[in-house]
């Protein structure tokens, strides 16, 4: 109910990361290794898992572009206009560009074709370092732009963090030399002291010694690469099955594997169309004195005037996402739970102004074309009351 695409991307990157040697640098493992004991670790690595990491990032953008098959993305160019019409997620940067329809149309097409075509630069076998830097630069700028215009929580940060894994060796070596040289000189001194402090708090330590590997190392590597290759093929097939491409669809009876390993993914950000049921919430509580107060605005008297900033009504993006899912009919089963939760929390915090009934109201103000403004419509999503003692 509170997850978004960034969470799915982070989950998938951590999955592929299990098969990558992430412990070589900037880690607990790296801090424990004595520099004089072994030669400096290699900074380059290639395996099926590296291909999976790179292709996973490409799949995010390519798949979401294929899912955006509505005219507002492909021909009309009005998708960004409708996205910025959502007061729930409108940021100050979005307010600045919202009054310019031609600019929004151009930015819509740029966004769509960036997601559709940019991933193919990762597949070009020559000038690889150059094309990777282009991808990193474009996607970083792309997500910074999103963060300035739309309230998307951690989504943009997770996506920016993901593309750091695409940095070519020359770029990463430069960053390491300029920014992280002090870490190497001190061998993670402060970090190591913190680690040793936590070790002292441990109740027990388990040491395991395996004198003879159960599986020969060369066979273990082949099994690992084979498993990752199958998982990668499955993820590609899963993503393409959700699009309109004329490819064989993944059978429903084989989706259990994706849900079991949590390889399931869907990159439907603003796809196929932008959500248009905009509006704001009123939590109308009835006190024992017959007053109607709005719990969503710290107990002010209820009115239907649109707040100056709808986005400010949410504690954070997780609550905003929950409120968005609260609207959908297929989630109606959980509405009473949230209604009773709001009433209980309010009464616990305000013993002198307790409420006996609560209505969760959504002031529906759908986004209309050409800057038209709809008349808000009052919709009661749920009603709950204190049970008599």
Could you characterize the architecture of this molecule?
This protein has helices spanning 5-17, 28-32, 48-67, 71-74, 79-84, 92-97, 101-117, 128-149, 155-163, 169-179, 181-186, 189-200, 217-241, 255-261, 317-327, 335-349, and strands at 279-287, 292-294, 300-301, 355-364, 377-385. 49% of the residues lie in helices and 8% in strands. The chain is of the alpha+beta class and 389 residues long. It starts with a helix and ends with a strand. Strand 1 (279-287) and strand 2 form a beta hairpin.
Concise synopsis of the structure shown:
With 389 residues, the chain is of the alpha+beta class.
Features:
5-stranded antiparallel β-sheet; alpha+beta; 16 helices; 389 residues
Task: Outline the fold blueprint.
Blueprint: H1 5-17, H2 28-32, H3 48-67, H4 71-74, H5 79-84, H6 92-97, H7 101-117, H8 128-149, H9 155-163, H10 169-179, H11 181-186, H12 189-200, H13 217-241, H14 255-261, E1 279-287, E2 292-294, E3 300-301, H15 317-327, H16 335-349, E4 355-364, E5 377-385
Strand content: 5-15%
Widest sheet: strand ordering: 3-2-1-4-5
Total helix count? 16
Q: Roughly how many Å apart are the termini?
A: 33 Å
- Mean pLDDT across the residues is 90
- Count of β-strands: 5
Q: Which geometry do the CA atoms define? A: globular
Supply the helix-strand structural class: alpha+beta
Order of H and E elements: HHHHHHHHHHHHHHEEEHHEE
């Amino acid at each position: 109910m509170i997850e978004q695409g960034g969470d799915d991307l982070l989950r998938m990157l951590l999955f592929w990361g299990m098969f990558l040697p992430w412990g070589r640098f900037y880690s607990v493992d790296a801090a424990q290794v004595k520099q004089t004991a072994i030669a400096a670790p290699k900074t380059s690595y290639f395996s099926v898992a590296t291909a999976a990491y790179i292709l996973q990032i490409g799949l995010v953008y390519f798949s979401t572009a294929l899912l955006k098959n509505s005219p507002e993305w492909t021909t009309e160019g009005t998708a960004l206009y409708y996205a910025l019409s959502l007061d729930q997620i409108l940021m100050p940067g979005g307010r600045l560009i919202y009054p310019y329809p031609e600019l929004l149309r151009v930015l819509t097409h740029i966004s769509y074709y960036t997601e559709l075509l940019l991933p193919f630069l990762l597949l070009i076998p020559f000038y690889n370092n150059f094309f990777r830097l282009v991808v990193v630069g474009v996607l970083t700028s792309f997500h910074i732009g999103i963060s300035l215009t739309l309230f998307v929580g951690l989504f943009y940060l997770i996506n920016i963090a993901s593309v750091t894994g695409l940095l070519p060796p020359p770029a990463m070596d430069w960053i390491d030399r300029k920014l992280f040289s002090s870490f190497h000189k001190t061998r993670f001194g402060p970090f190591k002291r913190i680690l040793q402090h936590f070790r002292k708090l441990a109740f027990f330590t388990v040491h395991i010694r395996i004198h003879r590997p159960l599986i020969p190392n060369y066979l273990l590597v082949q099994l690992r690469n084979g498993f990752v290759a199958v998982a990668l093929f499955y993820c590609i097939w899963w993503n393409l099955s959700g699009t309109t491409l004329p490819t064989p669809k993944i059978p429903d009876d084989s989706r259990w594997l994706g849900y079991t390993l949590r390889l399931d993914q869907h990159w439907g950000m603003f796809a196929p169309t932008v959500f248009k049921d905009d509006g704001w919430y009123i939590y109308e509580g009835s006190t024992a004195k017959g007053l109607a107060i709005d719990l969503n605005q710290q107990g002010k008297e209820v009115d239907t005037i649109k707040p100056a900033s709808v986005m400010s009504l949410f504690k954070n993006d997780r609550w905003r996402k929950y409120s968005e899912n609260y609207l959908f009919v297929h989630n109606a089963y959980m509405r009473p739970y949230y209604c009773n939760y709001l009433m209980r929390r309010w009464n616990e915090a305000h013993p002198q102004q307790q409420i006996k009934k609560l209505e969760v109201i959504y002031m529906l103000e759908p986004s209309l074309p050409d800057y038209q403004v709809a008349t808000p419509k009052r919709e009661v999503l749920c009603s709950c009351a204190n049970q008599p003692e």
